[in-house]
Write a structure and sequence with these properties.
Number of helices: 8
Strand order of the largest sheet: 2-1-3
Radius of gyration: 16 Å
Order of helices and strands: HHHHHEEEHHH
Shape: globular
Distance between the termini: 26 Å
Length: 199
């Protein structure tokens, strides 16, 4: 199945002031669209045609770098838009809250480790909360890589490519990450993914 650009689940100005309309227009309409367009071109004539985006990501990793780069970023962004919501952030509840406390000792510690992963990811990439062997871990990855290719299930990711924050925060990546955790995270979506990952 061909990749398609999903609609944003909120208006372009809904995440302001933490993520501006201008950032979302560039990030969604230009960058994500480019991953979709290039990914579809690179899919043509390969063994991955007709497969789900998850299958393409896992199957192309280490075998077809160009396709993997675009498929990985498409997968990451499909979820990235859903990992945010207006008036997000705050405290998770439900199963994921208990899992974070079990894994990190407290929600504050989980948030701090997640922000640290994003801050210390050199160059472009992502920071993640992912479920591996039934436990939540903090991970980070370069470029379009994600926990799927390392035997884990991503339940929260934050994009630390410069196009994700430079319009709003310039070089202040830690401020962007703090704003993401405190004001944007859609914990309901994180909880859904967590529960699916531990089934």
């Amino acid at each position: 199945m061909a990749f398609t650009l999903p609609e944003l689940p909120y208006s372009y100005d809904a995440l302001s002031p933490y993520m501006s309309k201008e950032t979302l227009e560039f990030h969604h309409d230009k960058h994500h669209q480019a991953y979709v367009t290039n990914g579809n071109k690179l899919l043509e004539g390969t063994e991955f045609e007709g497969k789900s985006v998850e299958e393409v990501v896992k199957g192309s990793f280490g075998k077809n770098q160009g396709l993997f780069n675009n498929a990985g970023q498409h997968y990451n962004h499909i979820h990235f838009w859903q990992w945010m919501k207006p008036n997000g952030g705050g405290k998770p509840s439900g199963a994921v809250e208990k899992a974070l406390v079990d894994s990190f000792g407290s929600l504050e510690a989980a948030n701090a480790k997640f922000i640290e992963a994003g801050t210390t990811q050199f160059g472009s990439g992502w920071a993640w909360l992912a479920v591996k062997d039934g436990k939540v871990e903090v991970m980070k990855s370069a470029n379009g890589e994600n926990p799927l290719v390392h035997g884990a299930h991503p339940i929260l990711g934050v994009d630390v490519w410069e196009h994700s924050y430079y319009i709003d925060y310039r070089n202040r990546r830690p401020d962007y990450l703090k704003a993401f955790v405190e004001n944007l995270v859609n914990w309901d979506h994180v909880d859904e993914l967590y529960q699916a990952a531990v089934k």
